[in-house]
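Before the break, one more example. Copy the sequence into your notebook; we will annotate it together after we see the structure.
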Amino acid sequence: MHIGFHPILPSWQGGLNYLRNLLFALHSTYGGQIQRSLFIPQGTAKEAYAALLPFCNEPIVYQVDQSSRLSKRIIEKIQQRRGQMVTTIVNPSLEQHLQHQGCQVFFMNNLHYHLSTPSLSWIPDFQHLHLKHLFNSEQLRRRDQAFLQRSRLANQLILSSKNARSDFLKFAPNYADKAQLLHFVAQIDPAIYTSETQTICAKYRLPERFVYFPGQFWQHKNHTVAFDAVRILRARGIDITLVCTGPLSDYRQPLYFSSLIQKLTDDDIRDRVIILGLLPYLDIQALMRQSVCTLNPSLFEGWSTTVEEAKTLGKCTVLSDIAVHQEQNPSQARYFAANSSEALADVLGDVWKTIPAGPDLDLEREARVNLPQRTRRVAESFLQIAQAAAG
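Here is what the structure looks like once it is written out:
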């Protein structure tokens, strides 16, 4: 089978990781039995797809012609005025390349072209239906419109969790027959397992023991409850170190990060919270391995990458009790009520006292043994979805 893939912009690290993990699963399971071609819009910077190249054929560059750009702008204006889906956009250059290469299926996350080649698209979650207050009216409208467009144009729709599939069935019931469930599995660079764990501490001048919170500084990631838990623990005489990484800006709430920094000062915990920003992916994995535990207090997830990475490393992880985290069900998880900083402080205090820093080699070994089978299941499920799309 020959499947085409469109890259996901590197500004969304979670989406890029998703596609890389998917392509790795197909590469490791099927090798050359399935051709995997990357279709790159002309002018795209190489960093947008460099991480995908080891698992694909050489990239195929296509031109986004001006008529497509113009029709997209016109259609968006009409849709905004009428509030409904209208004329379909086509891209002759992309269509021509897909047919010339003999692609049977094309995967494009933000699908907005009508293609004669059967297509797959992915909707990661329906956060905007549950946390409307985090979006303005224009963002809500655009998100609704984009998801409806994917639902209409794609032959099959991939949802990452039962929770997301349930939301989709309510959001777009007319397209219910397209909904397909696919849990992705996070991969870890094999070099991590043989690296000196404390090297990462020296690189970033970190203490040996810390709780690790990887995730964008977006409001739904719930940094506030994590910082409050650090403050509560300090009042109890327990000084933990919390290390945070991830992009520092939320496009929906531009002032959110600065408000968090002010909170650290007001609560007198700036010396207990270390913010490193966006790091190389290998360093993120090393921090996770060296930490006492990983933390994800998120209020909403489609299928958490950080939880999957903790599962792959056999790492203890502290999680908010949202439905998706419980669906992911990592064996070393400890849950707390998502909006309770007191409950999080209780869990973190216990973990801090009882779990040493660095890897648990027995749990890590078990996770490594299970990883190939978990990865293969992803590849087999995706292939079934692709075959259904191809008819």
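The longest strand covers residues 35-41. The chain has a mean pLDDT of 91. Try to locate both features in your own notes.
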